[in-house]
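User: Teach me something about this protein's shape.
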Amino acid sequence: MRTDESVFRLDGRIAAVTGAGSGIGRAVAQTLAGVGASVVVADIDVDRGAETVAAITDAGGQAIFQRTDVSRRPDLDALVTAAVDRYGGLDIHCNIAGVPSLVRDLTEVTGADLDAEFAISVKGVLYGCQAAAEVMARRGAGAIVNISSTAADLPAAGYGLYHLGKLAVVGMTRTLALELGPKGIRVNAIAPGATLTNFSARNFTNPDGSVDEERKRQWLAGMAARSPMNVVGDPQDQALLVLYLVSDAARFVTGQLIRANGGWSMG
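Assistant: First, the predicted structure itself:
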């Protein structure tokens, strides 16, 4: 087994990344491409997806865009088909897409609220795993990474829907690791802590789209205070964790929830 930095190289491998138009998804797509993977960039936002592809190709990498609504199984099937048609297969699948959750007490949550949340956070992940596993199983190898959250460890009043969705991702990941392991497919999940992205920007963005710098400063200070290192994460922190999980360095790792959260959920 390789023991130098080459263990993290992904030359000749094909990856699909959902939510790759911005934030953690974009960082994952760029990081995987940067170490040799050919990447299918998937996002519901065409313009942002195209920006990610341009960033990868301008840096000398290989990438194409596939518009994908992860709440629709046919879209995820089409994503995997695009990888196979363009690059010849699929070795890595990263379910990163997400949307800001509704803030509402669970006692007030409606069936429509539940359906909307789970369409992305649960169905989107499951459909992605199903579509990817079908191709990977034929090749007898593959790595899938799902996105959960530190919220799975630390429920918060008003965020029960988000908590439930991210707990479901953990259970799904562990079950799929058991079911797909005999087929050579590893399945893991990451649980980001406070990470500065478009996703978190809702906490300090005005209705007109401008950033309230004072609210941003307060948010950053509050999030940093939850870490014993007094830091807030960057999308690249999560992308490097994903790189580890999909590389040969993690060949003995499956069914795990791994946290890059600055120590937020230690106790």
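Now, about its shape. The radius of gyration is 18 Å. Helices lie at 23-34, 46-58, 73-87, 111-139, 160-180, 213-224, 235-246. If you'd like, I can walk through any region in more detail.
User: That's plenty for now, thanks!
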